[in-house]
Amino acid sequence: MKKILVVFAVLLAIFLVGCPNAPSNNVPEEKASSLKASGATTVPTTEEEIIDVFASAEDMDSDPLVVDLKEFFDSFGNGSKAINRGKSTTTAKGIVKKAFSVAKDLEETLIPQISDIQAALEAFPNTKELDETINVSGEAIGTYLTFTKGEATLKANAKTTDNAAIAEDLSNLKEISGDASLKIEINPTNALYDIGSAIKDVKFKTNAAGDAKIVSTSEGNAELPKITLNYTESLSIGLSFSKNEKGGKFILTENAKHSGDIDASALEGDPSTVVNNLITEITISLKVYDDNNQVKFSKTYNSIEEFTTAFAHQEPTE
């Protein structure tokens, strides 16, 4: 029966982290023509050259956009520790580490709304209902980026065998069902175009939605949950970047979905394995354009592992 709670926790995590479940329209692929010119004279045409563009981009810690985002998230108290923890780096690889810190600390901008959700979650064993929303549309992300759209919803209901509150040991839990949705669109402000950043333009869109249902069933003395999970997730990122005259317009598009029953045991073990079990269908497309909007690189990857392996940067050994 504990597996039921684990699965429901996954549903909640899906909502809060931004990787939800079932019918949702795919985000249209960002168009190269919608991005400002990068100014790059050398545009990568292979995976190795793409890696080199970002691995060789030094001194990004002093880039105006990076500095602004760092100050923005440091203002919440946790950003500085998260970003500066461990060995410092002045390469573009450091931007990736910052991005993970940013994602974690983003909750700090939503304290009032998050507090309401936390209160609802704590009361859930008694109310057996959730109907929560988060809306940050129009909110600024520092000086140079803004949430053009930022909406998320979570609904859930639980049933018990005796109609009472959910027991602490979950012994009377019969069923949990819920649905979630997420829509985010991030765009730059006009101020970005005048600060001399290596990041000339950036656009981000994602839609995700779905539903999950976990039902307790009995088989002998063992209680095995039946889990039905349906979701779709779609995102597109457009980035115009140039450092040392190397770069271009990068378009990353990802679509993932799952539909049907899953084995409860698939949610146990290593987190990366769990993700692979939940994302049964995924395509990741990466395209690189020059400033004339001519494609110089285009490839589609059919798994997260295939994509990350292709762009795993190996630090040079001395």
Helix and strand arrangement:
Blueprint lengths: L1 H16 L29 H9 L8 H11 L4 H6 L8 H13 L5 H17 L1 E7 L4 E2 L3 E16 L12 E16 L10 E21 L2 E22 L2 E17 L8 H8 L2 E9 L5 E7 L2 H7 L8
Antiparallel strand pairs: 1-3, 2-3, 3-4, 4-5, 5-6, 6-7, 7-8, 8-9
Helix pairs in contact: 3-5
Percent of residues in β-strands: 35-45%
Number of domains: 1
Overall residue-averaged pLDDT value: 77
Report the principal-axis shape.
elongated
What is the count of β-strands?
9
Helix coverage percent: 25-40%
Q: Output the helix-strand order.
A: HHHHHHEEEEEEEHEEH
Sketch the major β-sheet. 9 strands, antiparallel
Task: Note the main attributes of this structure.
9 strands; nine-stranded antiparallel sheet; single chain; 37% strand; alpha+beta; 318 residues; 27% helix
Task: Tell me what you see in this structure.
This protein is 27% helix and 37% strand. The protein has 318 residues and is of the alpha+beta class. It has one domain (2-57, 129-310). Strands 1, 2, 3, 4, 5, 6, 7, 8 and 9 form a nine-stranded antiparallel sheet that branches. A hairpin with a 2-residue loop joins strand 5 and strand 6. Helix 3 packs parallel to helix 5. It starts with a helix and ends in an 8-residue tail after the last helix. The model is unreliable at 1-24 and 77-108 (pLDDT under 50).
